[in-house]
């Protein structure tokens, strides 16, 4: 489904990603882990389209997306959940999720002013779909509340609903557990588990090793911008290179929280 | 539906007042200026409030609309209706053109960029003889369609009222749409909006052009009304006034532009009357005007940071809920 082929990107002469190659199969949950500075966020931003690769290609369902701007990648089926609280303030939860439907709808400004039947139909469909997505993440009861007042855990679930409204082929989550309390983290893990059962293809970039090993079918480990291991959770966690690069410090770090 | 929505009552009252005023007031210049400002500020409020983009030079697009009418009627002898329709289109196209580089700027930089645009338009008008030169273009014919020609102020005011209503209607529909949601989203986070599939640059450009179309429409109408267009007709202070009207009325609300325009225009008119008393020094007028702008902004930002319309709305909502009513806006 998602193919990243020998992608490199440097900042000021230092490679943040170097020849990163990985393939995510349809319906797979792929974890990306690595210590701080391993290049996880760079990889996330390269796939999302917020930065461009210097070399290498990224394809989604056989189509190259690495030269497309971010909004066009959304149209191709890249769904994004940001680490930060990137919900749209001043808008209700429902309106936030309705924005997510931009990726597969088309009515423009002229249609908005004239409101032909096609536009009205599309609006109804967007609303129904957004309500459905809100209910999937358990926030339908708060549909008319302003988004900025939500606690962080719910803001992240709102982002998941917004991304789902774009009918993504692959869902990218950037450190979805960071900053969450234990209970919120548990709820989020359950939500990702449900999405996996529904057959959603997920790329999970995460610092929390425990969360990733419990959710992902395969894990790619980055260190200093390179892929150092790729395999099932048990393969990866027993790989000496991984233990050396990451788990030694990461495990104690995860235990701190 | 036995409960009457207080907002609808206010809208009806405003509409009736607007329709009655042209028949009871003597000189309609003040009313006309107010309505034109309301049209401009509705567009500015859309741009600043919903899309989060600043403009200190909205007068540039008013000027483009006015020049379109002035040149179209006096130089080319085109029919008035045609040039009035062309005024917003030319202003919008101009905004779409200059917006490509301008909208790469953000925040304060965009504000100053738009102000620079206004100064450039003024300079172009005063140096190019085709656009009127330093003396401007006078002798713009009265507006009219076919055989009926506007002979006094009243039909202009009624036309402005109708166009204001049209502008409000279009704005309401655009805000509450797929496009409008994209615009509000990019004001909150461009990165997240982009990743949700909103073409951010194009959205900003469209909303910038739309606000310029409103300004151009007001400018075109003012050219017929005055009927004279010169570089001095669009001072920077007037563009600042639009911003103050938008902020005082309430950015990001449909009625904020109208409320701000009515309130600030009325206040300025009162100040004008006070300062033009014979025993007072002639410098008092401008001083009072600047002082009022400063005072208004400080008071608005301190006590009503969202502007009048949102403050009144939330106060009304509180009052309704205190009475145990189920009325919701």
The number of helices of chain B is: 13
Number of helices of chain A: 10
Question: Termini distance of chain A?
Answer: 34 Å
User: Tell me, what's the shape of chain A?
Assistant: globular
Largest interface: A-B, 43 and 27 residues
Q: In terms of structural class, how would the helical and strand content of chain A be classed?
A: alpha/beta
Please indicate the count of domains of chain B: 1
Strand content of chain B: under 5%
- Mean pLDDT of chain A, as a whole number? 91
What is the spatial order of strands in the main beta sheet of chain B? 1-4
Number of strands of chain A: 10
Q: How confident overall, as mean pLDDT of chain B?
A: 90
The helix-and-strand class of chain B reads: mainly alpha
Q: How would you classify the quaternary structure? A: heterodimer
- What is the string of helix and strand elements of chain A? EEEHEEHEHHHHEHEHEEHH
Helix content of chain B: over 70%
The largest sheet of chain A, given as strand count, sense and whether it forms a barrel, is:
6 strands, mixed
User: Nearest-angstrom radius of gyration of chain A?
Assistant: 19 Å
Descriptive report:
The complex is a heterodimer of chains A (257) and B (329). By secondary structure, chain A is of the alpha/beta class. Chain A folds into two domains: 1-77 and 168-257, Rossmann fold (3-Layer(aba) Sandwich); 87-166, no CATH class. Chain A is built from ten helices and ten strands. In chain A, the strands form two sheets. In chain A, strands 6-7-8-3-9-10 form a six-stranded mixed sheet, sandwiched between helices. In chain A, strands 2-1-4-5 form a four-stranded antiparallel sheet, covered by helices on one side. In chain A, a hairpin with a 2-residue loop joins β9 and β10. By secondary structure, chain B is mainly α. Chain B has a single domain (6-322), classed as ABC transporter involved in vitamin B12 uptake, BtuC, CATH 1.10.3470. In chain B, 72% of the residues lie in helices and 2% in strands. Chain B has helices spanning 6-24, 29-50, 59-75, 80-102, 107-127, 153-175, 178-188, 190-195, 200-225, 236-249, 256-275, 284-303, 308-322; strands at 137-138, 144-145, 148-149, 228-229. In chain B, the strands form two sheets. Chain B has a two-stranded antiparallel ribbon with strand order 1-4. Chain B has a two-stranded antiparallel ribbon with strand order 2-3. In chain B, β2 and β3 form a beta hairpin. In chain B, α1 (6-24) runs antiparallel to α6 and α2 crosses α11. The model of chain B is unreliable at 325-329 (pLDDT under 50). The interface between A and B is medium-sized, with 43 and 27 residues.
